[in-house]
């Protein structure tokens, strides 16, 4: 009986969440599917992600190979599934770098203002002045094509966005009574920044995070496609699309098509989740409801 009541309550909560933001529900479901795929891909496919099948080169999709095979005789379905691990391994650490670098800079610039704000803001403006893809291409080419380098570069390039969002929020509340009270009672600066200001300024950055994770996936796939990012035989979706592009003209479209579809679904899921978070954190939404 208790289980049935809890299921009803969970269903009611989901229904209310759907009414408030169906985008968030659908996007979260797609992101959850991506995470499950990354966790369970080793149990789903009988093949390894780099296992070569000499007698199965460029086979069309079939019962034995759902997405066909590529020019090396590797199972495309298996490689697309394992590509989800690279997607998570890029999106989540990149988001951590963005937040870990951008949020403290935004807090410091907004709280101190004056020369500190001016210097930090101008430095961030210089970083954002370069086209993101071109800058990522240049830095990854110089530092190496490892997963760690790709993650760090993407995170650092996008950190200024979070810094600006947090900075604007801090500027709007730094003269508030609760901040003045914290200063008067002798709280150290780090406590004012991270205990008093951060919880009141992080909402906008949190809503922005899934959107920037989608951006990180797109940039990573772009880098791999042009030959700078993670490369074959690693089953990263951008690398798989690059590998399959040469076969499209000869009719073996499935090699590039299926990893491309997986990338679109993942990016779409993160974008929907981000749009939904912005809807849920918009105070005007509560007024309308």
Automatic annotation (TrEMBL):
<keyword id="KW-0812">Transmembrane</keyword>
<dbReference type="InterPro" id="IPR025966">
    <property type="entry name" value="OppC_N"/>
</dbReference>
<protein>
    <submittedName>
        <fullName>ABC transporter permease</fullName>
    </submittedName>
</protein>
<dbReference type="GO" id="GO:0005886">
    <property type="term" value="C:plasma membrane"/>
</dbReference>
<dbReference type="GO" id="GO:0055085">
    <property type="term" value="P:transmembrane transport"/>
</dbReference>
<dbReference type="InterPro" id="IPR035906">
    <property type="entry name" value="MetI-like_sf"/>
</dbReference>
<comment type="similarity">
    <text>Belongs to the binding-protein-dependent transport system permease family.</text>
</comment>
<feature type="transmembrane region" description="Helical">
    <location>
        <begin position="86"/>
        <end position="112"/>
    </location>
</feature>
<keyword id="KW-1133">Transmembrane helix</keyword>
<keyword id="KW-0813">Transport</keyword>
<dbReference type="Pfam" id="PF12911">
    <property type="entry name" value="OppC_N"/>
</dbReference>
<dbReference type="GO" id="GO:0015031">
    <property type="term" value="P:protein transport"/>
</dbReference>
<dbReference type="InterPro" id="IPR000515">
    <property type="entry name" value="MetI-like"/>
</dbReference>
<feature type="transmembrane region" description="Helical">
    <location>
        <begin position="253"/>
        <end position="274"/>
    </location>
</feature>
<feature type="transmembrane region" description="Helical">
    <location>
        <begin position="21"/>
        <end position="45"/>
    </location>
</feature>
<dbReference type="InterPro" id="IPR050366">
    <property type="entry name" value="BP-dependent_transpt_permease"/>
</dbReference>
<keyword id="KW-1003">Cell membrane</keyword>
<dbReference type="GO" id="GO:0015833">
    <property type="term" value="P:peptide transport"/>
</dbReference>
<keyword id="KW-0472">Membrane</keyword>
<keyword id="KW-0653">Protein transport</keyword>
<dbReference type="Pfam" id="PF00528">
    <property type="entry name" value="BPD_transp_1"/>
</dbReference>
<feature type="domain" description="ABC transmembrane type-1">
    <location>
        <begin position="84"/>
        <end position="274"/>
    </location>
</feature>
<keyword id="KW-0571">Peptide transport</keyword>
């Amino acid at each position: 009986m208790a289980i049935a009541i809890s299921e009803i309550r969970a269903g009611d909560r989901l229904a209310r969440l759907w009414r408030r933001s169906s985008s968030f529900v659908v996007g979260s479901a797609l992101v959850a599917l991506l995470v499950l795929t990354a966790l369970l891909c080793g149990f789903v496919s009988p093949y390894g992600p780099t296992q070569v099948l000499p007698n199965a080169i460029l086979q069309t999709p079939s019962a034995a190979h759902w997405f066909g095979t590529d020019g090396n005789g590797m199972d495309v379905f298996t490689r697309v599934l394992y590509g989800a691990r690279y997607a998570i391994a890029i999106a989540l650490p990149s988001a951590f770098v963005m937040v870990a670098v951008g949020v403290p800079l935004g807090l410091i610039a907004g709280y101190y203002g004056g020369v500190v704000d001016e210097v930090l803001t101008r430095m961030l403006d210089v970083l954002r002045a370069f086209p993101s893809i071109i800058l990522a291409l240049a830095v990854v080419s110089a530092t190496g094509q490892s997963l760690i380098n790709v993650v760090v570069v993407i995170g650092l390039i996008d950190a200024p966005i979070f810094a600006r969002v947090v900075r604007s929020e801090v500027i709007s509340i730094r003269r508030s009574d609760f901040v003045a009270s914290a200063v008067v009672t002798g709280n150290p600066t780090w406590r004012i920044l991270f205990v008093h200001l951060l919880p009141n300024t992080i909402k906008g950055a949190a809503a922005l995070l899934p959107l920037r994770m989608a951006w990180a996936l797109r940039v990573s796939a772009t880098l791999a496609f042009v030959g700078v990012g993670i490369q074959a035989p690693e089953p990263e979706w951008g690398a798989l699309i690059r590998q399959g592009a040469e076969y499209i003209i000869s009719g073996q479209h499935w090699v590039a098509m299926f990893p491309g579809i997986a990338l679109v679904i993942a990016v779409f899921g993160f974008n929907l989740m981000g749009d939904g978070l912005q809807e849920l954190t918009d105070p005007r939404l509560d007024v309308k409801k």
